[in-house]
Prior knowledge:
The chain has 252 residues and is an all-alpha fold. It contains 9 helices and no strands. Helix 1 packs parallel to helix 6, helix 6 packs antiparallel against helix 7 and helix 6 packs antiparallel against helix 9.
Amino acid sequence: MALVLAVVAFLMTLTGGLVAMRVRDRRHLVLGLAGGLILGVVAFDLVPESLEQSPGGPLGVPGPMVGFALGFLLLHVTEQAAAIHQAHEGEYAPHEHPHGHGHGHAGAGRAGILAACALVAHSFIDGLSIGLGFQAGTGTGVFVALAVIAHDFADGFNTFTAASLNRADRRPALVLLFADALAPIAGAAAGSVVAVPDGVLGPYLGFFAGVLLYLAAAEILPEAHSRHPRALTLGATGLGVLAVLLIVGLAE
């Protein structure tokens, strides 16, 4: 049963990615929506779920929130050390280096791949949650699966959008979209046979929430607002947050 529902999640993820492919002429709105969806998933799904899994932690701070801060800081430090993050300087104002070389978009492209990989990992955890839910009982497993399926459309949408950020070649985005769609199936299979302690799963979910929030705030949303009217893009971002809030609320 867990694997059957994971296949439904697979189809929902692919549907989200296909929708993202069709709206490239409205890229700024797509990116604004994707940023809102990621923010919504972090705020209304990942963080609350991680706190439920592991509410305790060192010095009175919940373990998942320690993981959240570590995920955010680790990606920030990694980007700075590897000179990935370009701060989008050329998009906010003209900028020339002394020898006439401007900033390219390779850094943002690589950051988009990182974002997509984080979403694949998130989808694996979703599938793992389905498997573990069925270990607890059929009713619990079905409820968890419905919650996963409800937001896998957003996962597929975000994965393709992030992986195609500043890339003319769609092949990496398609590969990661397919990986994101398969991840719940792999996670459900693993969760059906392997028990993961709540003390580990909670901080892990918090860690990926920090990674995703950093990528949304530092890469996807700045790109969305770089050369386009702010009002429509802000509206798309707000719509993304509201959509996840409604999905999570209905799933509860």
